[in-house]
Amino acid sequence: MPGSLIPLAAYQLVAALLFTIGLVGVLVRRSALIIFMSIELMLNAVNLSFVAFSKQNGQMDGQIFVFFVMSVAAAEVAVGLAILVAIFRNRETANVDDVHLLKG
Amino acid sequence: MTEAVLFTLFSVAAVLFAFNVVFRKNAVHCALHLVGVLLSLSGMFVLLNAQFIAAIQILVYAGAIMVLFLFVVMLLNVKGEVPLLTPGAAKGFGFFFALLGFVELLWIVLSSNGGGEGAPRPAAVLPAGFGSPAEIGRILYSTWLFPFEVTSILLLIAVIGAVVLAKRKFL
Q1: B17-37 confidence digits (pLDDT tens)
Q2: Is position A50 within any domain?
Q3: Distance in angstroms (rounded) separating the CA atoms of residues A24 and B19
Protein backbone atom coordinates (compact mmCIF):
# COMPACT_ATOMS: atom_id res chain seq x y z
CA MET A 1 0.00 0.00 0.00
CA PRO A 2 1.74 3.21 -1.11
CA GLY A 3 1.87 6.13 1.30
CA SER A 4 -0.50 9.03 0.89
CA LEU A 5 0.47 12.11 -1.10
CA ILE A 6 -1.69 14.39 1.01
CA PRO A 7 -0.22 15.31 4.41
CA LEU A 8 -2.29 14.83 7.53
CA ALA A 9 -2.25 18.57 8.20
CA ALA A 10 -4.17 19.25 4.98
CA TYR A 11 -7.06 17.09 6.15
CA GLN A 12 -6.91 18.65 9.60
CA LEU A 13 -7.04 22.09 8.00
CA VAL A 14 -10.19 21.23 6.05
CA ALA A 15 -11.72 19.75 9.20
CA ALA A 16 -10.87 22.92 11.16
CA LEU A 17 -12.43 25.10 8.45
CA LEU A 18 -15.64 23.05 8.37
CA PHE A 19 -15.83 23.03 12.16
CA THR A 20 -15.42 26.81 12.29
CA ILE A 21 -18.11 27.39 9.67
CA GLY A 22 -20.43 25.16 11.69
CA LEU A 23 -19.54 27.09 14.84
CA VAL A 24 -20.41 30.38 13.12
CA GLY A 25 -23.74 28.87 12.12
CA VAL A 26 -24.54 27.80 15.68
CA LEU A 27 -23.57 31.15 17.17
CA VAL A 28 -25.03 33.49 14.59
CA ARG A 29 -28.14 32.01 12.96
CA ARG A 30 -31.56 32.38 14.55
CA SER A 31 -33.43 29.43 13.06
CA ALA A 32 -33.22 26.32 15.22
CA LEU A 33 -33.26 24.15 12.10
CA ILE A 34 -30.16 25.80 10.66
CA ILE A 35 -28.48 25.52 14.05
CA PHE A 36 -29.11 21.76 13.92
CA MET A 37 -27.61 21.59 10.44
CA SER A 38 -24.57 23.49 11.68
CA ILE A 39 -24.15 20.99 14.49
CA GLU A 40 -24.20 18.21 11.89
CA LEU A 41 -21.52 20.13 10.02
CA MET A 42 -19.34 20.25 13.13
CA LEU A 43 -19.83 16.53 13.81
CA ASN A 44 -18.79 15.77 10.24
CA ALA A 45 -15.67 17.89 10.56
CA VAL A 46 -14.70 15.85 13.61
CA ASN A 47 -15.41 12.65 11.67
CA LEU A 48 -13.04 13.75 8.93
CA SER A 49 -10.39 14.39 11.56
CA PHE A 50 -10.94 10.93 13.07
CA VAL A 51 -10.59 9.17 9.73
CA ALA A 52 -7.48 11.15 8.79
CA PHE A 53 -5.79 10.23 12.10
CA SER A 54 -6.92 6.65 11.64
CA LYS A 55 -5.08 6.41 8.34
CA GLN A 56 -2.02 8.23 9.67
CA ASN A 57 -1.64 5.77 12.54
CA GLY A 58 -2.64 2.69 10.57
CA GLN A 59 -5.26 1.76 13.18
CA MET A 60 -8.94 1.35 12.48
CA ASP A 61 -10.22 2.44 15.89
CA GLY A 62 -10.76 5.95 14.52
CA GLN A 63 -13.16 4.59 11.91
CA ILE A 64 -15.07 2.71 14.60
CA PHE A 65 -15.38 6.01 16.48
CA VAL A 66 -16.84 7.64 13.38
CA PHE A 67 -19.40 4.84 13.35
CA PHE A 68 -20.39 5.67 16.95
CA VAL A 69 -20.45 9.41 16.25
CA MET A 70 -22.84 8.75 13.38
CA SER A 71 -25.24 6.74 15.53
CA VAL A 72 -25.19 9.39 18.27
CA ALA A 73 -25.85 12.05 15.60
CA ALA A 74 -28.81 10.06 14.30
CA ALA A 75 -30.28 9.79 17.80
CA GLU A 76 -29.65 13.47 18.44
CA VAL A 77 -31.36 14.52 15.20
CA ALA A 78 -34.40 12.35 15.88
CA VAL A 79 -34.93 13.73 19.39
CA GLY A 80 -33.95 17.29 18.48
CA LEU A 81 -36.32 17.52 15.57
CA ALA A 82 -39.10 16.05 17.71
CA ILE A 83 -38.47 18.80 20.27
CA LEU A 84 -38.49 21.37 17.47
CA VAL A 85 -41.83 20.10 16.20
CA ALA A 86 -43.27 20.22 19.73
CA ILE A 87 -42.05 23.81 20.23
CA PHE A 88 -43.39 24.87 16.86
CA ARG A 89 -46.76 23.33 17.60
CA ASN A 90 -47.08 25.27 20.86
CA ARG A 91 -45.43 28.57 20.02
CA GLU A 92 -45.59 28.82 16.22
CA THR A 93 -41.94 29.65 15.93
CA ALA A 94 -38.63 27.97 15.14
CA ASN A 95 -36.61 31.01 16.10
CA VAL A 96 -34.31 30.47 19.07
CA ASP A 97 -34.58 34.12 20.12
CA ASP A 98 -38.34 33.74 20.63
CA VAL A 99 -38.04 30.68 22.88
CA HIS A 100 -37.06 32.15 26.22
CA LEU A 101 -39.34 30.35 28.63
CA LEU A 102 -36.47 29.59 31.00
CA LYS A 103 -35.11 33.13 30.91
CA GLY A 104 -35.67 34.92 34.21
CA MET B 1 -1.42 13.24 -8.71
CA THR B 2 -4.98 12.03 -9.05
CA GLU B 3 -5.21 11.95 -5.28
CA ALA B 4 -4.14 15.58 -4.97
CA VAL B 5 -6.64 16.69 -7.60
CA LEU B 6 -9.47 14.78 -5.95
CA PHE B 7 -8.52 16.06 -2.51
CA THR B 8 -8.53 19.67 -3.75
CA LEU B 9 -11.85 19.17 -5.50
CA PHE B 10 -13.55 17.58 -2.50
CA SER B 11 -12.16 20.01 0.06
CA VAL B 12 -13.04 23.13 -1.94
CA ALA B 13 -16.51 21.73 -2.63
CA ALA B 14 -17.04 20.86 1.04
CA VAL B 15 -16.04 24.33 2.26
CA LEU B 16 -18.14 26.15 -0.36
CA PHE B 17 -21.18 23.98 0.39
CA ALA B 18 -20.64 24.58 4.12
CA PHE B 19 -20.68 28.35 3.60
CA ASN B 20 -23.95 28.00 1.76
CA VAL B 21 -25.40 25.90 4.57
CA VAL B 22 -24.76 28.65 7.08
CA PHE B 23 -25.55 31.76 5.03
CA ARG B 24 -28.51 30.75 2.86
CA LYS B 25 -31.91 32.19 3.63
CA ASN B 26 -34.09 29.29 2.52
CA ALA B 27 -33.91 26.29 4.88
CA VAL B 28 -34.48 23.83 2.02
CA HIS B 29 -31.44 25.23 0.20
CA CYS B 30 -29.43 24.89 3.40
CA ALA B 31 -30.42 21.23 3.73
CA LEU B 32 -29.53 20.48 0.10
CA HIS B 33 -26.15 22.17 0.47
CA LEU B 34 -25.57 20.10 3.60
CA VAL B 35 -26.10 17.02 1.43
CA GLY B 36 -23.34 18.41 -0.80
CA VAL B 37 -21.00 18.70 2.18
CA LEU B 38 -21.78 15.12 3.21
CA LEU B 39 -21.13 13.76 -0.29
CA SER B 40 -17.82 15.64 -0.54
CA LEU B 41 -16.75 14.28 2.83
CA SER B 42 -17.71 10.80 1.70
CA GLY B 43 -15.34 11.23 -1.24
CA MET B 44 -12.59 12.27 1.15
CA PHE B 45 -13.25 9.17 3.26
CA VAL B 46 -12.61 7.03 0.19
CA LEU B 47 -9.30 8.87 -0.33
CA LEU B 48 -8.48 8.03 3.30
CA ASN B 49 -9.03 4.26 2.86
CA ALA B 50 -12.33 4.28 4.75
CA GLN B 51 -14.59 2.75 2.13
CA PHE B 52 -17.13 1.35 4.59
CA ILE B 53 -17.42 4.67 6.44
CA ALA B 54 -17.87 6.45 3.10
CA ALA B 55 -20.72 4.09 2.24
CA ILE B 56 -22.56 4.52 5.54
CA GLN B 57 -21.92 8.26 5.37
CA ILE B 58 -24.05 8.32 2.22
CA LEU B 59 -26.60 5.79 3.45
CA VAL B 60 -27.14 7.11 6.97
CA TYR B 61 -26.32 10.82 6.71
CA ALA B 62 -27.18 11.84 3.17
CA GLY B 63 -30.00 9.31 3.08
CA ALA B 64 -31.78 8.94 6.40
CA ILE B 65 -30.80 12.01 8.43
CA MET B 66 -31.14 14.53 5.61
CA VAL B 67 -34.52 13.14 4.60
CA LEU B 68 -35.61 13.67 8.21
CA PHE B 69 -34.31 17.25 8.06
CA LEU B 70 -36.08 18.03 4.79
CA PHE B 71 -39.24 16.43 6.12
CA VAL B 72 -39.25 18.67 9.20
CA VAL B 73 -38.33 21.78 7.15
CA MET B 74 -41.35 21.21 4.95
CA LEU B 75 -43.56 20.22 7.87
CA LEU B 76 -42.81 23.40 9.81
CA ASN B 77 -42.96 25.63 6.70
CA VAL B 78 -40.96 28.31 8.50
CA LYS B 79 -41.39 31.73 6.95
CA GLY B 80 -38.15 33.34 5.82
CA GLU B 81 -36.50 34.92 8.83
CA VAL B 82 -36.46 38.65 8.25
CA PRO B 83 -33.11 39.30 9.93
CA LEU B 84 -31.16 36.23 8.91
CA LEU B 85 -28.60 36.51 11.68
CA THR B 86 -29.08 37.12 15.34
CA PRO B 87 -29.23 40.88 15.91
CA GLY B 88 -27.02 43.20 17.88
CA ALA B 89 -23.80 42.49 19.70
CA ALA B 90 -24.40 38.74 19.80
CA LYS B 91 -23.59 38.53 16.09
CA GLY B 92 -20.25 40.28 16.51
CA PHE B 93 -19.38 38.09 19.48
CA GLY B 94 -20.34 35.00 17.49
CA PHE B 95 -18.03 35.82 14.62
CA PHE B 96 -15.26 36.87 17.00
CA PHE B 97 -15.32 33.69 19.05
CA ALA B 98 -15.59 31.51 15.96
CA LEU B 99 -12.51 33.24 14.55
CA LEU B 100 -10.75 32.75 17.87
CA GLY B 101 -11.62 29.06 17.80
CA PHE B 102 -10.33 28.74 14.23
CA VAL B 103 -7.02 30.35 15.17
CA GLU B 104 -6.68 27.91 18.06
CA LEU B 105 -7.44 24.92 15.83
CA LEU B 106 -4.96 26.21 13.25
CA TRP B 107 -2.32 26.56 15.91
CA ILE B 108 -2.90 23.01 17.11
CA VAL B 109 -2.79 21.59 13.58
CA LEU B 110 0.35 23.43 12.57
CA SER B 111 2.24 22.73 15.79
CA SER B 112 1.29 19.09 16.29
CA ASN B 113 3.62 17.38 13.76
CA GLY B 114 1.24 14.47 13.39
CA GLY B 115 1.16 13.67 17.08
CA GLY B 116 4.86 13.05 17.72
CA GLU B 117 7.84 14.97 19.03
CA GLY B 118 10.43 16.39 16.68
CA ALA B 119 10.27 15.55 13.00
CA PRO B 120 6.88 14.61 11.48
CA ARG B 121 6.20 10.92 11.77
CA PRO B 122 5.80 9.13 8.44
CA ALA B 123 2.38 7.66 7.80
CA ALA B 124 2.00 4.11 9.06
CA VAL B 125 2.02 1.24 6.57
CA LEU B 126 -1.58 0.16 6.24
CA PRO B 127 -2.39 -3.51 6.86
CA ALA B 128 -4.23 -5.45 4.16
CA GLY B 129 -7.97 -4.89 4.17
CA PHE B 130 -7.71 -1.55 5.96
CA GLY B 131 -11.15 0.07 6.10
CA SER B 132 -12.95 -2.84 4.48
CA PRO B 133 -16.31 -3.96 5.90
CA ALA B 134 -14.79 -7.29 6.97
CA GLU B 135 -12.10 -5.63 9.09
CA ILE B 136 -14.56 -3.07 10.51
CA GLY B 137 -16.90 -5.88 11.50
CA ARG B 138 -14.11 -7.91 13.08
CA ILE B 139 -13.00 -5.00 15.29
CA LEU B 140 -16.53 -3.80 16.00
CA TYR B 141 -17.67 -7.20 17.25
CA SER B 142 -14.55 -7.98 19.27
CA THR B 143 -12.82 -4.94 20.78
CA TRP B 144 -15.81 -2.59 20.59
CA LEU B 145 -18.59 -5.06 21.30
CA PHE B 146 -19.82 -3.45 24.53
CA PRO B 147 -19.98 0.13 23.18
CA PHE B 148 -21.78 -1.26 20.16
CA GLU B 149 -24.45 -2.84 22.35
CA VAL B 150 -24.78 0.38 24.36
CA THR B 151 -25.34 2.22 21.08
CA SER B 152 -28.30 0.00 20.31
CA ILE B 153 -29.84 0.96 23.67
CA LEU B 154 -29.15 4.63 22.91
CA LEU B 155 -30.98 4.34 19.60
CA LEU B 156 -33.91 2.61 21.30
CA ILE B 157 -34.13 5.45 23.85
CA ALA B 158 -33.98 8.01 21.04
CA VAL B 159 -36.85 6.30 19.22
CA ILE B 160 -38.99 6.22 22.37
CA GLY B 161 -38.11 9.85 23.16
CA ALA B 162 -39.00 11.02 19.66
CA VAL B 163 -42.35 9.22 19.79
CA VAL B 164 -43.20 10.66 23.22
CA LEU B 165 -42.17 14.20 22.22
CA ALA B 166 -44.07 14.15 18.95
CA LYS B 167 -47.28 12.99 20.61
CA ARG B 168 -50.11 15.48 20.93
CA LYS B 169 -51.04 17.04 24.29
CA PHE B 170 -47.48 17.05 25.44
CA LEU B 171 -45.71 20.15 26.77
Answers
A1: 999 999 888 889 999 999 999
A2: yes
A3: 10
| A20 in Cβ contact with A11 (< 8 Å) | no
Residue A2 lies in a domain: no
d(CA B170, CA A41): 30
Query: Whole domain around residue A80: which residue ranges?
Result: 8-93
In a domain, A86, yes or no: yes
Q: Give the domain ranges of chain B.
A: 1-80
Percentage above 70 pLDDT, chain A: 95
Out of B76, B130, B131, closest to residue A94 by CB: B76
The answer, for A69 touching chain B at a CB cutoff of 8 Å, is no
Question: Where does residue B147 fall: left (phi above 0), alpha (psi -120 to 50 degrees), or beta otherwise?
Answer: alpha
Fold of B1-80: Four Helix Bundle (Hemerythrin (Met), subunit A) (1.20.120)
Q: Is the pLDDT of residue B169 over 70?
A: no
pLDDT at A1: 42
> What CATH number is attached to the domain comprising A58?
1.10.287.3510
User: Which residues in chain B have their CB less than 8 angstroms from residue A34's CB?
Assistant: 21-22, 27, 30
Banded model confidence at residue B80, pLDDT cuts 50, 70, 90:
low
What pTM did the predictor assign?
Answer: 0.90
The residue-averaged pLDDT of B137-151 equals 94
Distance CA B26, CA B80 (A): 7
Q: Judged by CB atoms within 8 Å, which residues 13-42 of B form the interface with A?
A: 14-15, 18-19, 21-22, 27, 30-31, 34, 37-38, 41
> Residue A3: left if φ>0, alpha if ψ -120 to 50, beta else—which one?
beta
- Asked whether residue A1 is assigned to any structural domain, the reply reads no
